[in-house]
Amino acid sequence: MQTRITELFGIEHPIVLPGMSWISTPELVAAVCNAGGLGILASGPLSQQQTRDAIATIRSLTDKPFGIGITLMMPGAKQNAKIALELQVPVINFSLGKGDWLVEGAKQYGGKVIATVVTEKHALAAQKSGVDALLVTGHEAAAHGGEVTSLCLVPNIVDIVDIPVIAAGGFADSRGLVAALALGADAVAMGSRFATSLESSVHQNVKNAVIEKRVADTIYSKNFDGLYARVMKTPAAQKATKKPMNFLIATIKSFKAAKMVDMPLWKLLVGLIAQFDKIKMLSLFGAATEKLEAATIDGDLENGVQFIGQSQGVIHEVKSVQTIINDVVSGAETRIQSLANKQV
Ligand SMILES: Cc1cc2nc3c(=O)[nH]c(=O)nc-3n(C[C@H](O)[C@H](O)[C@H](O)COP(=O)(O)O)c2cc1C
C-alpha cells in the first residue's frame, strides 16, 4: 500500500511504531522496520552514551530507515537530538518544543523530520518550520494525546496543512488504518498495539491486563505527570491521578529520574531554571517516572501506573510485529475493496 508517507520515508507499509519510553527499544524498532513499517526509538530514558549505543544496535539489526523520538521539553533531550543529527538518523520525530534547528540539521544530510502535534496552532507552526510530516495525536491515545478525538482532529489538521499526516490515537487494527486513510491521513502510528506485541519489552502482566481491559478502562488526567495523559484504569492509577503530587516531593523524585539519564544535578538545575515558568510541570513529569517504570518494567500494576490508549479495547491477542503488520495491511486492503463494492 503506497501513500505519501511510504514514499517520503521509503518504507513498504503506512505503519509507524511511535516512541514509547522503555518500549520502543532498538529490538522493537528493528522488528517494525524489518516488517516494512517505520520504527521510532524512544530516547527519553536514555543517556547520551545509551543513545549512541541504541542507534548502533538498530543499525546492526536492520538496514531499513528508522527514526528517533525526542521529547524536547525533557532534560537531556537536546543533547540526544544532537547525537541523532551527528549520527545522521534518517528520521527525527520531535514533540513538546520548537524543532526548527532539527529541521535545519536533518536537511544537511537528507534526513526527514516529523513533528508530533495535538492542535491546529502547533500543526501550522510545525509546517512553517519546514518539517516533512506531522504525527497528529488524538484524545484516544496512550499518554499525551490531545483534547480532541482523532475522528475530528485528523481531518481538521489534514484540511489546513499540505504535508502528510500520520494519525495516532485509537488505531490498532485494519479498521483503524482504513478509517485513518478515509480521514485524509497517510499512515497510522500504533502505540498500544505494538506495546502489546510479542517483541515488546513491556512486562507480561501489562500485556495480560491490556487483553483483559475494555475500551473504557482508561483515565485521562492532568494530575499524573502534569500534562493531560491517558493511563490504564487500575486502583493505583486512580489513586495517583486523584490530585497532583506535592511540588517538593515531585522535585525530589524528578532528580532521581534525572540520574537515570546520567544527568549531573547542576545541569538539571540549570535546565529547570532556564524553563522556570514550567518548573512545576517539569518536576511532575520527572516524578512520574518512578510509577511508570514500576508498571512497564516490573509489571507492578498494584503500585505502578501504565500509559495505555483506549484502543486496548480492540486488542485481543499478543501477536508478533510481523503478524500485526500483515493483518493490518491485508485486512485494510480487503476492507477497502469490499467498501468499494458495497451497494449504497
Ligand atoms: C505503553 C506506552 C508508553 C508510551 N510512552 C510514551 C513516551 O514515553 N513518550 C511519548 O511521547 N509517548 C508515549 N506513548 C504514546 C505513543 O507515542 C503514541 O502517541 C500513542 O500510543 C498513540 O496512541 P495509541 O496508543 O492509541 O496507539 C506511549 C504509549 C504507550 C502505549
TrEMBL record:
This is Nitronate monooxygenase. InterPro entries: Aldolase_TIM, NMO. Transmembrane segments: none annotated. Coiled coil: none annotated. Its EC number is 1.13.12.-. Keywords: Flavoprotein, FMN, Monooxygenase, Oxidoreductase. It comes from Pseudoalteromonas spongiae. Pfam families: NMO. GO terms for molecular function: monooxygenase activity. It comes from the Bacteria.
